[in-house]
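Recall that a protein's primary structure is simply its ordered list of amino acids. Everything else, from secondary elements to tertiary packing, is in principle encoded there. The following example makes that idea concrete.
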Amino acid sequence: MRWKVHSEKPLYTDPWLDIRLADVEITGGRHLDHRVIRSDAGAGAVVVDAQRRVLLEWRHRFITDAWGYEIPIGGVQPGEPPEAAAAREVEEETGWRPGPMRPLTIVHPTPGISDSRHYIYWADGATHIGLPAEDWEAERIEWVPLTDIRGLVGAGKIVSGTSMAALLLAASEA
């Protein structure tokens, strides 16, 4: 059954997110109050070089207190096409300019509570242009063989849902 939304009211709003309370009708005409997080889209890239290695960031996420590899990804700015946002994020976060890009997938990382949508691209290679724009994005930047991805997921070294989905898809296509 498709749930029917009767109304939404804001609970908290800032430039990063909009938390709402939705009156949702479910089976049998029953209603429930459901929290919804509205957020802007994100975009990132799986950058793969000629040696079939992928450009990854090793970083700490304080909310879950977890270290892991992630693809470069960030917010899409108003009026910015997702592909341009993905290329910008790769450059800013890694210091590498991605080569030609094509759509890989769209990930809805937490569809049970959020409308967040991540546009993920495959980039063929990259050119090193300098240091990352900020020193806080990642502990280090590495080129990791695509053949290592499944093992890294199994070892708990890739824990971000979007990165995991994109990397496992890329590894299956490689």
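The mean pLDDT is 96. The longest strand covers residues 4-13.
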